Amino acid sequence: MNVFVTAQHIRAVALKPVNEANMNSVLVSLDRYRDDFGMDRVHRVVQYLAQLMHESGDFRFDREIWGPTPAQARYDTRADLGNTPALDGDGKKYMGRTGMQLTGKANYQAFYDWCVERGFNSPDFVANPDLVNTDPWEGLVPLWYWDSRNLNRYADQGDIETITKKVNGGMNGFDDRVDHFHAWRWSCSA
Predict the structure, then answer these.
(1) Where are the domains positioned within the chain?
(2) Which option is the CATH number for 7-189: 1.20.950.20, 3.20.20.70, 3.40.50.720, 1.10.530.10?
(3) Residue 169: CA atoms inside 13 Å, Cβ hemisphere, count?
(4) Over its length of 190 residues, how does the chain's per-residue pLDDT go in tens digits?
(5) Cis ω before 136 (30° cut-off from 0)
(6) CA–CA separation, 123 and 128 (whole Å)
(7) Pick from 134, 78, 87: which is nearest to 106 by CA?
(8) Given CA atoms 151, 155, 159, 160 in this order, what sign does their dihedral have?
């Protein structure tokens, strides 16, 4: 079953005004790669968009707002993210980008490697991480992230808590994610 999501659907579900360019990047990739990522079932798309809309503030943001906050300052030495243990700027260089907030050198490398394996003519995102915020990568990163964490499995189980933990690393913004989930579920059944 094909699930088609339009800009009108997103605007109706959004709790705040959307950034049209960010939204369109996601829509184009979702339309083009839906079958490749198993986004052919309503419940998967609903879970995916609920998480993505929370992470991006209803598509208003395609990169982390850099303070740096104390948590962001700790990114610089987070070896678990693939950053070096030295205070050398890796935290800011590999800050969260795209609607799904791709964060850390290891994730940029993994996305680049995935693109190369599939024959995409992609730039080197490790050398120039800002390029993930260009098309088609802006819309493809969230799909890759979702797939690389096997989140359709949890969407099939209706497990929004595990999905949230795997996307966010915790339960930040859980109520907003649930609100988006219910709005999407209602929108898709209307």
Answers:
(1) 7-189
(2) 1.10.530.10
(3) 8
(4) 677 899 999 999 998 999 999 999 999 999 999 999 999 999 999 999 999 999 999 999 999 999 999 999 999 999 999 999 999 999 999 999 999 999 999 999 999 999 999 999 999 999 999 999 999 999 999 999 999 999 999 999 999 999 999 999 999 999 999 999 999 998 887 5
(5) yes
(6) 8
(7) 78
(8) positive
pTM: 0.95
